[in-house]
Structures are given as C-alpha cells and as structure tokens.
From TrEMBL:
PROSITE patterns: ABC_TRANSPORTER_2. It comes from the Bacteria. The keyword Oxidoreductase does not apply. This is Cysteine desulfurase. GO terms for molecular function: ATP binding; ATP hydrolysis activity. The keyword Protein biosynthesis does not apply. Gene3D superfamilies: P-loop containing nucleotide triphosphate hydrolases.
Amino acid sequence: MLEIKDLHASVEGKEILKGLNLNVKAGEIHAIMGPNGAGKSTLASIVAGKEEYEVTKGGILLEGEDIEDLAAEERAHKGVFLSFQYPVEIPGVTVTNFMKTAINETRKAQGLEEMPAKDMLKKIREKSELLEIDRKFLSRSLNEGFSGGEKKRNEIFQMAMMEPKLAILDETDSGLDIDALRIVANGVNKLKSEDNAIVVITHYQRLLDYIVPDFVHVLYDGKIVKSGTKDLALELEEKGYDWIKEEINA
C-alpha cells in the first residue's frame, strides 16, 4: 500500500528526514512513535503532499505508483487521507456540505458521476451511527466551536465517509480524555479492513491499548531506528527514549 524508500526531506533548508524507510501493507496498522522533533508530523505532511517540505532524495509509492510529484488533492483522490493534529475551523461550511463536496470532487477525479443525494444521506447516517455522532453535529460549521474530542471525532467521521486506501492519523489522541479516545479508537478499529492501511502517529502508548498495531516503529533523528510489536511501545512507555539513543550511539 505504502512504500517509502530512503526518504530525505527538508524545510527552509533544514534537513528533517534523513533516509527514512517504511513499508505498509494493506490490512495493517502501523504505529510511529518517537521524541519531539524526530520528524513524525513531517513524515505525515510529506506523504499527504504538503508543499512547504522539499523531498531531496528517495521516493513515496502508493500501491506501486510514485506520488511524489502529485499535489495534495491528487493524492487525496488516489486514497491518501491525513487526520490533522490540529483541525482547522471553517465557519459557514457545515460538516455535511463539506463531506458532500469532498466525496463528489474525488468521484469527479475518478471519472464518476456525483453520488445521488439519497445514497449520500444514507452513507452519512450509517457512518455517523458507526461513530456515535449526534445528527445535530452534522449541521454545525466544520470544527467551529468544537471541543478537542469533537474535532478528532469529526476527523474520523471524514475518514469513514472518504474510505481512503491509506489513512494517516497524526497524534489523533492529543488533548483527548479517555471517553473521547475510546470513541475515536473504536471508530478507527471499525474502519480497518483488508483493503486499507492505517498509520498512527502518537506520543503515548495508551492509544495503542485501544488501537492495537501490527507494527510499532521508533522514529529518531529523521530515520526509523527500531521496529517491533506492541511490546516495543510498552517498553518505550516504561523506559523513555534514552536507551534507543544509547543503542544508536553505541
């Protein structure tokens, strides 16, 4: 689903990713952990196509296709989804209208007709029930006046509606209480399938109690330096990152 080969990337002349390699297969959940400044959010932004980052070496393949030269919206149309750490507010645009536009733009890019209104409403109803979302929530302006938990749940609702091939969740757990975390995680688990892949970027092992990853990777100084199972996340929670630094510098 996703193959990243020897990725080097910089922003404003500062190198952040320094030869990162990652392979994610369909049906898998991968968690990426690491200290602040390691390059986790940079990696998410680069895969999604954020323009301010410059890829200086290496490649990003989605289902074998090089997507490095594609704009962010073209990547989205091909099935890349990024859930933001800090979702933006868009006053005047309702959650429902935002979703209708997003889905129909993707369908248009794929040469399909707009989704009939009846089918769209049915899908909205099904996905909002799946994620325990109040219907009143859907007529509110996107993220305007939303609590942290509502913003994150709305991101997962967008993921449910868009049905991406590759979903990247950038610190979806930050700022969430346990109840909101459980609802968001349940949504992610319900959306996992053999046809998609999910990359979860997190600081905290607690999210991985709810979303159990197939693989955990440690990103440090612009590279993935260690990979393992969920046990690696437990070890990081217990020991911190100093032992990883010592291993690298040994």
